Amino acid sequence: MNQGLDWDLLAHLSEAPGIGGCEDAVRAVVLDFLADIEVDVTVDNLGNVIAVKGTNGPLIAMSAHMDEIGFMVSHIDEDGFLSLQPVGFWEAKTLNAQQVTVTNSAGLELLGTIQAGRGVPPYPDGPKVEQATIQEFYVDLGLDHDQVHDVVELGDMVTMHRQFTQTDTTVSGKALDDRAGLFAMLEAFRRVDTTDVQVAMVASVQEEVGCRGAEVAAYLLNADFAIGLDVTQAIDLPPAKPRESVTRLHHGVAIKLFDKSMLPNRKLNRHLRDIAERNSIPYQLEVLPVGGQDGASFQQSRAGIVATTLSIPTRYLHSPNERASKRDIGAMVDLLVAALPEIGTRSYIG
Questions:
Q1: Are 23 and 103 a contacting pair, CB within 8 Å?
Q2: Which of 69, 98, 129, 258 has its CA 20 to 30 A from that of 292?
Q3: Which residue among 187, 207, 286, 322 is the active-site one?
Q4: What is the 3-state secondary structure (H, E, C) of 55-95?
Q5: What pTM value is reported for the model?
């Protein structure tokens, strides 16, 4: 299964810049993909891309977010250095000396370096230096004050500058959270049989700042069932204990049992597990002690929706270099294609 996945599409999604509220470049990739599928596509007032396949049966919504964590310019000092407002949560220790892209309102992209402090690490025999806070970081564009002011203004987007790469078994790049889930959703939407169901896909905005896009889309669609699609922690690394891993790369798509935003429907999860086992699709179970995602917004919409979330195990989340397994991404696509036509054929309540 999962043959013929278009990894170039994931590369384009990963490399496109798009913090919350500035998802235009990512949305353009999504709309270009959907142009080859004969479906009605809408972009709502918040910027979500919504498309529906099928005309009969229950409406099942999938949602994956387009936005990535990043920054906006909050100040330009007298020497042309940029101060930053985070848009989404960052681990400050991952940022020093990384390359970033500053994108202005006209779409002009400028390459810079993000840094804190004096730009050099402490010498081994020097005083211990505490980890910088996000507020101490600045961006150096290599331009003087007047040149910066000509092309940059407050509110301009700042994202990591990172080339997507792949091996035979993994992919790596920025913003796999959640461009990997978005990619899997698009591939599944293209393939799924909608003879007896209606399938809606939502490429949502502003998830990293509170699942705002999914909340709006969930209310609009009023679906019968919903599946959030996101990434999750894979802490399958040398310092970690097995019980701390949450999920592991190459062990399959993760079916969520818990995160801080959501207790998924257990009977729907059982149905997904049965379908995965019947179709020999690798899966694992996920208990995530933190976090939140689009599935929770659908679950809590209107009078409540039967919902769950599928996740792609990913190392180094919320860093400039995230890594995921091709096998796990393919398993998400396979499970969606197999399960979506069956959802609603069992009772999930009571």
A1: no
A2: 98
A3: 207
A4: CCCCEEEEEEECCECEEEEEEECCCCCEEEEEECCCCHHHC
A5: 0.95
Q: How many residues in the chain?
A: 350
Closest listed residue to residue 330, CA positions, set 171, 195, 162: 171
The tokens of 55 are what?
């005309």
Tens of pLDDT, residues 293-320 = 999 999 999 999 999 999 999 999 999 9
Domains of the chain: 7-68+174-339 (3.40.630.10), 71-158 (2.40.30.40)
* pLDDT-derived band at 134, boundaries 50, 70, 90: confident
Q: Rounded to whole angstroms, how far apart are CA atoms 20 and 157?
A: 9
The token pair at 76 is 């330009």
- Region of residue 211 (left: phi > 0; alpha: psi -120 to 50; beta: else): left
Cα separation, 255 vs 260, in Å, equals 15
Taking the C-alpha atoms of residue 69 and residue 80, their distance in angstroms, rounded to an integer, is 24
207 carries an active-site annotation: yes
The answer to whether 263 touches 345, Cβ cutoff 8 Å, is: no
pLDDT(329) > 90: yes
Amino acid letter for position 331: A
Q: What is the pLDDT of residues 85-98, one digit of tens each?
A: 999 998 888 898 99
| Alpha helices per DSSP H over the chain | 7-15, 24-34, 145-151, 176-191, 212-221, 266-278, 294-299, 326-339
Separation between Cα atoms, residue 74 and residue 76, nearest integer Å: 7
In 96-176, where do the E strands start and end?
Answer: 98-103, 109-116, 137-140, 157-160, 165-166, 170-173
Q: Cβ-count burial of 144 within 10 angstroms (0-12 exposed, 13-18 middle, 19+ buried)?
A: exposed
pLDDT tens column, 186-199? 999 999 999 999 99
Q: Are strands 225-233 and 198-204 parallel, antiparallel or unpaired?
A: unpaired
